[in-house]
Design a protein that fits this description.
The chain is built from 14 helices and five strands. It is of the alpha/beta class. The chain has a five-stranded mixed β-sheet.
Length: 289
């Protein structure tokens, strides 16, 4: 199920989406939403999120670099109707919608970063550090993108996230079961891959069939089309190819196969990252139909 907004792309009710696809209810509707970044939400968008949908919590999975990139864009002249940009006291801080609770979880955390850095040659590693120290953050990330991320692709990076971001994944899943957090909106920049991974894992706990999870994930392909050219420019700036704007058809199946092969299944994987059985049962209670 998609909901029309002025300035929020890729928004949908995850539960209703999979239920409608399956023509039966496996997930609770109206409690878990996903989207691309809502930074430019219009006043009408804000009211729809808070009043019409009753969203209480927003989980932002983005990195500091992404927040800084958006801050630079907000430094351009703002229209009078841009209430969100005017509400922030510091442009470098992530945009927040007044009245909503925010959780910032950088799902690609320190361990993930250390793994990526370990894949660089010594020369490239030193060059990257030098660029960061001089303030050339985007150029440093471009170096990492070209040498580490591009060869692995979206799916490969998703699998690395599974392996190296366990603590952050567990933290994100725990937001779903904390008191008074639901309904909840989860987003990253596109609301496609990092958001998609968290949603995939939650739906796997609910035993939602692979084809229904894939259907939900693949909806992002068309939902992000209105801003595709702008997203491609962002990717080019950090050294990524146009394929990073797409949704690989086999993303969900590869994640599920990786978890089964390496960890023995979703429950064993979640045990390994500290998201225990009692928490999984609570997740089923709050997100299951």
């Amino acid at each position: 199920m998609s909901v029309a907004f002025d300035n929020i792309l890729n928004f949908r009710d995850v539960g209703k989406t999979v239920n409608d696809y399956l023509n039966r209810k496996l997930a609770r509707e109206g409690v878990l939403y996903r989207s691309a970044r809502p930074d430019d939400a219009s006043p009408a968008d804000q009211n729809k999120l808070k009043d019409d949908l009753g969203i209480k919590t927003v989980v932002d999975l983005r990195t500091k670099t992404e927040h800084l990139q958006q801050a630079e864009k907000r430094q351009a002249p703002q229209s009078e109707g841009s209430a969100l940009a005017q509400s922030n006291t510091t442009l470098a801080e992530p945009v927040q919608i007044p009245g909503l609770r925010y959780r910032h979880i950088r799902v690609t955390g320190r361990r993930f970063e250390r793994f990526l850095l370990s894949q660089l040659s010594w020369w490239s590693y030193l060059k990257l550090i030098f660029l960061f120290l001089l303030g050339y953050r985007t150029q440093a990330i471009s170096l990492l993108s070209q040498e580490v991320m591009l060869p692995r692709g979206i799916v490969g990076m998703g699998l690395i996230t599974v392996d190296e971001s366990g603590a952050e994944i567990a933290e994100a899943l725990r937001t779903f079961i904390e008191p008074a957090t639901l309904p909840i909106l989860v987003h990253c920049t596109q609301g496609k891959d990092r958001t998609g991974l968290i949603v995939v894992l939650a739906l796997m706990v609910l035993n939602v069939p692979t084809e229904a999870i894939t259907y939900d994930y693949m909806l992002s392909q068309a939902a992000l089309e209105p801003e595709r050219e702008a997203r491609l420019q962002e990717f080019r700036e950090i050294g990524l190819s146009p394929e990073w704007a797409d949704c690989p058809q086999h993303f969900v199946a590869r994640v599920e196969d990786h978890i089964k092969t390496r960890y023995g299944g979703i429950n064993s994987y979640l045990d390994s990252i500290g998201f225990e059985n009692s928490e999984r049962q609570r997740l089923i209670e709050v997100l299951g139909a």
